[in-house]
């Protein structure tokens, strides 16, 4: 009898838990309204972090306090902003000398110690401690009150927020699978399209609430339209949820197995997402053909593409692959910038699996970010796909306050192509030889 009473109490408590989550979070998500709980939570969190920063600055030495006031970074080497051409021109005085190679050697050593690519795949450093362990956990020893607040924060994040977020994520994923499967059984019509959009929007809103997400959308008049292509910088897998929380898109990507495969197969029944098999992904012409067919239909949802092809750490925008810009049609650029003060949204897939990454996300304080819809852009006459991609990338970088880099994000896992090495060698040869030496060499030959 005692065991039955305990089980009954647990079931009642579990039912109350799900009922509360449904009434307070899920139901408002259906109607796209907010009860203001997230806003109140973020305001309280900001005040708490400001107080913690003041306590740290008060409790540590002046030198360390000064370090906390200035933005920290991963930078090891202090580099000058002079181009290599200008630096070598200033060092050389005439004909080639062996010392001319020293500057190039110096640049090579700097690149080995710290290059522009590798540091884009590490977590962004913060100005001050945010009471999370990914910065300096030793800060909570500075004062007793700060230690108490840190312990309370651990309890809140792991014992209250984590169970709630897992519950909401489960509801959101199951709802997406069930609703899109049911909608997919309906005949193609305007009603089916409306129900599909409602299902995707509702489930995305639930998943955003599962992350304690607070998202600020700017310039909504530039939102992607049907028949267009939406391109955005890529920081995390949750970029998709961030964008679909404010509108519906056609997803493009590789077909997966497991739970992700179940979600893909169910959603494609309700919405014309474009999933490719692994063998098809290698056929660039096939991918381009299917995307062009989709864009040609102005009644279909805009395609959502992340041209970088990999996640970058919220500080930079790396090379956009040209394939997305060869399709034709209107490009709708979107800039996404996360606030690292509340949690690290960057997914370092080389270091963390998807499960451990989601655990880190769900035990952070919140996900806060800004999304800017930029004016639509089209390929100009005589402009090739590479220049068009760079133009779009520059616009996104400027709006998001991100560093623009020319490197391929694929260098995260792959070796540098030989063609890149040869190009750098040719450029260096031109700088060293110069037109003067070339002229003297030709005259000597005559």
Describe the structure.
The termini are far apart. By secondary structure, this protein is α/β, with parallel strands linked by helices. Helices cover 52% and strands 9% of the residues. Helix 9 (258-270) links the parallel strand 3 (250-254) and strand 4. Helix 1 (2-31) crosses helix 7 (190-210) and helix 6 (144-184) crosses helix 9 (258-270).
Total helices: the number is: 14
Please state how the strands of the largest beta sheet are arranged side by side.
1-8-7-2-5-3-4
Mean pLDDT across every amino acid position: 78
How far apart are the first and last residues' alpha carbons, in Å?
109 Å
Uncertain spans? 62-74, 435-446
What's the total number of strands? 9
Radius of gyration: 26 Å
Instruction: Assign the structural class, choosing from mainly alpha, mainly beta, alpha/beta, alpha+beta, or little secondary structure.
Output: alpha/beta
The major beta sheet can be summarized as: 7 strands, mixed
Shape: globular
In what range is the share of β-strand residues? 5-15%
Order of helices and strands: HHHHHHHEEHEHEHHEEEHEHEH
Give a quick rundown of the structure.
This protein is of the alpha/beta class and 446 residues long. The protein has 14 helices and 9 strands.
